[in-house]
Structures are given as C-alpha cells and as structure tokens.
Backbone:
C-alpha cells in the first residue's frame, strides 16, 4: 500500500520542480507579515507591473494591437503566479513549459498573418483543479485520486478556451471533497488569503481566488454548487459569476457524486472586472456548446442585453439585509446601506427584500448535497488512507446519523425542491405590490456571506450563497472596498442571536480579526437572465460611483 505521506510529498515535489525553473529567487516574507498581497509583485519590471494590472479585456486588445506579445504577457503573470504560490499555496498542477511553447506559436501566427487566432489570443487563463485538462492529473483534493485521474481529454470549457486562443498555464487548489467554502486538503495543504494570511480565501475555488487577487492570473475558471465561485470572489475582492444551470458548459469535470442531479453546479469565471465576466460568457456561448453538451439550453449570448439594451431607465432593487438566520457582521450591513442610499439618490426604486424560508432552504439543500448520507465522500477519503480536514467534518455532520435516502425519499425531496422554487418565484413576483413603479423587483442586492473572509476552519453558514443555488438563480459578486480595523471606529451592536449558528458567528465579530479583508456584495437576478444581471451590475456600480457620499 502506498504511504499517503509519500503521495503528498511526491505531488508537492513535482509541483516545486516545475515552478523552480521559473522562479527568480524566493521572496522573503517576514514571519509576522499578515498582508501578503504585494509580495508577489515585488520582482516585476515596470512593464510587467503594468501588464498584470490590466484586466483580461485590455490584455487581449493590447496583444491584438501588438503592444505586447503573448510571451510578454505570460512571462509577467507566471512570475507573479510562482510567487503567489510561495506565499498563499494556491496552485496544484503546473504546465508552464507547454504554455510558453503555445505563446511562441501564437506570437508567430500573429506576426505571419496579421490576425489573432481567436478572441482570447494570448490570454493566460487559470483553471480550477477538478476541471479536466488533457494529460494533467485531476486529483481534486483527494489523495486517493492522485496519479489515477490523469485526464484523457479536455473539459468543454477548456476546449473552448483553447480554440479562442487562451493559454492554459496552471491549475489551482481545491478542498478535499470540493463541497467546502474553504480550501484545504491533505495533498497540498491549506490555501491562505493574500490580504490576511490568518483568513481563508474561501472555497471551493479558493486557489483561483488567491491567485487572481495576487495578480497571478487575469481570469480563472471555477465552479459553484453552493457558493464556490462567489465566496472566493468575495473573500479575495474579485468579480465572480454563477449562472443558472444549463447555461454555460459544464461537462468534463471530475468530482464526487458524478451523475447526481438533485442539485447541479455551474462553471463560471472569476476576474478583476465586470466586463471580463461578460467576455467569458460571450466566448463560451458564441462557441455553441449545446451542440457538444446535450443538457445545455440553446441560448446564444445576447450581447446587446448585457450592454444594457432593454433595461428600464430606473431599476427596482430589493436589498436583503438579514436572511432571518444569521445577521451579517457590521462591515457588510454598512456596505448594503451605502449602496441603498446611493441607489436611491440615483433615482432607483429601492425596497427591502423580505427573507423567506432561508433556514428551510439550507436544510433542504444539505439533504440534496448528501443524498447518500455522505457515503461516497467517506469511502473516497478512506480509500486514500487519509483523514477528513475540518471543513469536510463540518459538512458531513449535516448528514450524521442518517441513512442514505431511498428512491422514494429522493422523489419526495425533488418535489420539495420544486415547491420551494415555486413559492420563491411567487414571492418575487408579488413584490410589484410594494414598488413605486408597480413592477416586480429587477434584482436583489444581498450579502455573499454573513462575515468577511473568516479565520481558517470556521465557515459555518452558507445560506447567503447556497440559497440561490437551490433556486437556480444567477448571482454575481462584485468588490466594494477593503475593511480597515481602526481603534476609534464604533459599530452598532449585533442583534440578539436567534440560534446556535448565529451565536457562533456573532461571537466571531472582532474588527481586528478581519483587518484588510475585502468587502464584496452580491446581485441576484431571475433565472437564465445572466446578460440582464451583468447589465444591472453596471448600473449599480455606476450609481454608486456617482452618488456615494
């Protein structure tokens, strides 16, 4: 039997060997340093610094105009990615030699033809570990899968990226089981938040969050079944989109519970700008992925709608301040209030969203996640000879002492899910009775989580993100600032806790704990209205920019 420590050591040594060729000396980080975010940028040239501060949309334009070559761009991001790995532990698999070969070919093609190979020509894109890249291991945070899950083909999202001219260069860390909003496994260890190493970057796309926050990638691909794109985006100060199921390509992923469709995840982008989210979706759907993946809906990307065509002059925005289970910490409530006042000053119709059944929603989705009582997760962990990391223990406790559901049980749960969605849709439609315009709410503005990025191993309420997975509504996360703990600041007291989870989370509130953590919020739209959601994000950000006091 292979010793699990040997497997982990071998994987780490192989990763280090591939990175060492490209490392220009290790960066010294003082042991007492908390904010790690600037260290990966410390060895860049001025030109490289300019490149890595560009968003993906700007990069592809600059390459097309021959301001920079694909090799220039890749070299800059690789330099940061290697350093970001050193300080945050964000990478899993590495394919830098292949990436530079591809960049050289792309530069030669542009030089010889005068044309780009596709709309993402030369753009480095990072990929979450469980999304297949042909020839690379897809261990997905499980020791037992290491060296046994080398992909024999690309995931559809990867195939589309390659055809568009993107350069794949690294895969990023995921947690054990993937069903976690932190990033920790027994193979590579824990990923830390670059803005405060004592806090989590989120999960399960936490490697993506940490890498992009360090400027080590201009665009990353994640997945989300309970918050796994939106939580890392929020904890790392980024933009992230979870669409509705069957909109964006989702085939070619490896994870537990393949074939389970009671609740389905979504592939989506993490990026540094709102327009990059639109770029990703447009590239995906212009490729007509429904011709390759049967479950996808034939819904071409409506670029005019994403650009705002058809939006009412003034939006109806509902703000969810409290889901009725866990009231968020003060910095989040303050951000919601700031946006409330800015939107009202801009003339938008702003009402309060009345939370309905969020605890019941969590109880239901937790059952849908663990239809087999967690048996497959337990078996996979046991087969690798490893133990559960703390957040795995937490999620599996949601099914503790329960037998796997029978087919009859699952039919009943599916019926409950559809009834839950119907009730929520009726609730949304009924908001027309409370709006000035007489129209239902266009979009919901809400927290992404009840806390800013929390200390490692303490995430304990998913409801602000998983609720929208249960309803299959698209959600987009956007940054609004960074929290600074100041001795003179005062904060309103938190309400009396209504349950044990809220009591635990409220006891966590201490400003110094969250110092330098990003503050992000979330917009939620109607099902399969991703274009309109991104258009409304542009309106909301514009209103804030022009009307915030």
Residues:
């Amino acid at each position: 039997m292979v010793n699990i420590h040997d497997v982990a050591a071998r994987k780490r040594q192989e990763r280090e060997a591939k990175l060492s060729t490209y490392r220009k000396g290790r960066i010294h980080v003082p042991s007492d340093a908390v904010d790690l975010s600037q260290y990966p940028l410390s060895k860049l040239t001025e030109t490289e610094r300019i490149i890595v501060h560009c968003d993906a949309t700007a990069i592809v334009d600059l390459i097309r105009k021959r301001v920079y070559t694909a090799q220039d761009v890749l070299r800059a991001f690789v330099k940061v990615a290697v350093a970001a790995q050193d300080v945050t532990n964000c990478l899993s698999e590495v394919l830098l030699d292949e990436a530079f070969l591809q960049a050289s070919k792309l530069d030669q093609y542009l030089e010889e033809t005068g044309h780009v190979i596709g709309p993402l020509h030369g753009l480095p894109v990072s990929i979450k570990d469980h999304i297949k890249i042909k020839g690379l291991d897809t261990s997905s945070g499980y020791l037992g899968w290491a060296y046994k899950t080398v992909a024999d083909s690309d995931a559809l999202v990867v195939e589309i990226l390659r055809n568009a001219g993107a350069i794949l260069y690294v895969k990023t860390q995921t947690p054990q089981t993937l069903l976690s909003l932190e990033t920790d496994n027994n193979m590579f260890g824990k990923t830390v938040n670059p803005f405060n190493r004592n806090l989590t970057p989120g999960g399960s796309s936490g490697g993506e969050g940490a890498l992009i926050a360090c400027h080590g990638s201009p665009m990353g691909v994640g997945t989300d079944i309970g918050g796994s794109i939106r939580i890392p985006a929020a904890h790392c100060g980024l933009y992230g989109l979870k669409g509705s199921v069957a909109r964006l390509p989702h085939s070619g992923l490896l994870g537990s519970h393949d074939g389970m469709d009671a609740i389905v995840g979504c592939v989506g982008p993490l990026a540094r700008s709102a327009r990059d989210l639109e770029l990703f979706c447009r590239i995906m759907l212009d490729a007509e992925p429904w011709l390759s993946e049967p479950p996808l809906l034939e819904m071409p990307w409506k670029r005019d709608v994403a650009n705002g065509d058809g939006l009412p002059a003034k939006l109806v925005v509902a703000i969810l301040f409290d889901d009725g289970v866990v009231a968020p910490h003060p910095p989040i409530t303050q951000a919601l209030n700031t946006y409330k006042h800015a939107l009202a000053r801009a003339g938008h119709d702003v009402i309060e969203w009345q939370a309905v059944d969020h605890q019941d929603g969590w109880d239901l989705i937790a059952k849908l996640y663990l239809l087999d009582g967690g048996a497959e997760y337990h078996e996979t962990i046991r087969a690798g000879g490893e133990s559960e990391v703390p957040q795995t223990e937490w999620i599996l406790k949601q099914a503790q002492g329960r037998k796997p559901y029978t087919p009859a049980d699952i039919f009943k749960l599916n019926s409950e899910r559809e009834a839950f969605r119907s009730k929520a849709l009726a609730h949304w439609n009924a908001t027309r009775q409370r709006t000035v315009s007489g129209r239902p709410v266009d979009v919901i503005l809400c927290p992404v989580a009840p806390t800013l990025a929390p200390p490692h191993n303490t995430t304990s309420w998913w409801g602000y993100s998983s609720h929208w997975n249960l309803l299959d509504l698209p959600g987009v996360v956007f940054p609004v600032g960074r929290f600074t703990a100041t001795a003179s600041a005062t904060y309103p007291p938190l309400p009396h806790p209504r349950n044990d989870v809220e009591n635990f989370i409220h006891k966590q509130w201490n400003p110094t704990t969250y110092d330098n953590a990003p503050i992000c919020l979330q917009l939620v739209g109607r099902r399969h209205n991703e274009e309109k959601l991104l258009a409304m994000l542009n309106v909301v950000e514009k209103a804030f920019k022009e009307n915030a006091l």
